[in-house]
Amino acid sequence: MENTMGNSDATFDKRLVELQSLFELSKTLNSSLNLKTILDTLLFTPMGRMMITQGAVLLKNNQEYQFTIAALKGLASKNIHTNVSIPQQIHAPVLLDEISHFDILAYLQGLGLKLLCPILSNNKAIGYILLGGKITRQDFTEDELEYLASFANLAAPSIENSKYIRELQNVNDELDRKVQHLKTIFEIGKELNTTFDQDKIASILVFAIMGEMMTQKIAVVECSKPEKPHFLISKGFNEREDITTHIFKKTYQILKKQQRALRLNEIENNSIVNQFQKVGVRVLVPMFRQDELAGCILIGERLNKAEYRADELEFLSTLGNAAMISLENARLFKETLEKQRLEEELSIARDIQRKLLPASPPLIDGYEFAGMNNSHSQVGGDYFDFIQINDHQWAVTIADVSGKGVPAALLMANIQASLHAMIHTEWTLGEKVARINNIIHANTNMDKFITFFVAIVDTQKHELTYVNAGHNPPMLFSGDKNAEKVKLLECGGLILGMLKNVPYEQETIALHRGDLVILFTDGVSEAMNENDEEFEEFRIEATIREHVHKSASEIMHYLEDAVKKFSGSTPQSDDITILTMRFKDSNA
Q: Residue 122, Cβ neighbours under 10 Å: how many?
């Protein structure tokens, strides 16, 4: 009787000690939010109590039935972080020998582990305590297994709390990194926006990334045309030519599709990976201009050999796009300056060209002259002129140079100079035109030519001698009211500049009271309306006949207005030049 009571007291005392131990353990676990401290306690406490030299703690990861070795004692450190699959639901401490076979069982047993104790939360295992055999080689008792189960269950809330805290810390750390990245982007952005020099922008970007990512190899490449990538700056890469020749055509579509920074191991094309590895590239960062892939940053290995994190890749993508905006602004600024410079030069050219044209028509008794030129662009290829040869002879000319803009304007200046040099010579008008043709042919390519008409008006003889070198035939309206037909002044030859040593014929016409001559370029006859119809010669004739009794200047402006009205909203596509000449008085 006394012996039975003694055993009961001993058992009670043992239970009390275990409860006190569990209570103290609970306080210890709950006093710490550090997962390593909690896991060390989970191992040291039972290993010390049961005289065990080997142990490990597995914690659930994000994969189903997958656990990771999070802590170990008495085992090789190479096993830490090893993933372990335990497909069975185990709810109580159990010897590994008593568990039905699963793939990883032999691995655990090979480590010397004997006992598996689940760490349960809501009746689901969030981890396992694994223990080796006792030094005494004794078996685990029922009390010890019960103690381990209680011990593990007490640890479950602490483990979950510490995991939550760790996740929260990770989130906070990531948030801190992103805030820091945003600050960095903001600071770099301010610096990038202080200059419109593309080289300086690329340099700021490169040194910023080198400092943030701790790398010595980086290059910024303009690759809007993947077949012709252009290195804006390169630091540490010695194989620029290999990168240019072999890689960008293949990587352009990958970067355009992914629209984010890529580690080299994220690219599936082995050929690209091998070539980038050869030159030391580890990360590719696309640089977008709106939705267009316009550039790329190549980044090498870090000095500490660490992998580039996901948040760092995001930072690099954002920074790359911000830099591309600055590079694009610099390009547009450069283009604007270049455009302004060109416009200033064109304005000067326009002023010079205007001075090559007569400021006003000549005032000659018995005659009326008028002329106007409306260029399609700032400088044009149409030319007209009134040149006094002597007291009673004036040259009247009109020309149209092929093409538009500055080349046409230069050729126009050439013919103006040639005509002024030739018109005072003793040669016939046909010979003068032939020599002008040779000058133009010698100084222009085959694709450049000039339609040209020149006439000499003799105000004593009242005669008009002309040569037409392929120009729209001027129209002679007779002052005779009974004359119905318009005479076209077509005599001459080939347009200027096509062939060398071409002969030109000339024709002399007697002028009578009221005769009117209309000269124009194809900007008049070929003016288009909204229906793609041309103004054509018949409308020119109709307009002149309607106003034939008006002055030369009025007729010119009526014709100009008729062309504008016909064209409507259709933009002017060519230079418009009109000359009018009327013989008023045969006795003058």
A: 7
- Number of residues in the chain: 588
- Look up the pTM and report it: 0.53
The correct CATH number of 193-332 out of 3.30.450.40, 3.40.1000.10, 3.10.350.10, 3.40.190.10 is 3.30.450.40
What dotted CATH number matches 358-583?
Answer: 3.60.40.10
For residue 528, what are the contacts with CB-CB under 8 A and spacing of at least 6?
534, 535, 567, 570, 573
Note the Cα 579 to chain centre separation in Å: 50
Neighbours of 161 (CB within 10 A): 16
Q: What is the pLDDT along the chain (588 residues), one digit of tens a residue?
A: 455 545 555 444 445 445 555 555 655 555 556 778 878 888 888 888 889 999 999 998 888 889 999 899 999 989 999 998 888 788 899 998 888 877 888 888 899 999 999 988 888 888 899 999 999 889 998 888 888 888 788 778 877 777 777 777 777 777 777 767 667 777 777 777 777 788 888 888 888 888 888 888 888 888 777 677 778 888 887 655 556 556 677 778 888 888 888 888 888 888 888 888 888 888 888 888 888 888 888 898 888 888 988 888 888 888 888 888 888 888 888 888 888 777 766 666 666 667 678 889 999 999 999 999 887 665 667 889 999 999 999 999 999 888 766 777 778 888 888 999 999 999 999 999 999 999 988 888 777 788 999 999 999 999 999 999 999 999 999 987 666 789 999 999 999 988 999 999 999 999 999 999 999 999 899 999 989 899 999 999 999 999 998 999 999 999 999 999 999 888 877 888 999 999 987 554
* Class (C level, CATH) for 11-166: alpha beta
Do 269 and 254 form a contact (C-beta atoms < 8 A)?
Answer: yes
Residue (of 230, 232, 252) closest to 241 by Cα position = 230
Stretch(es) of the chain classified as CATH 3.30.450.40: 11-166, 193-332
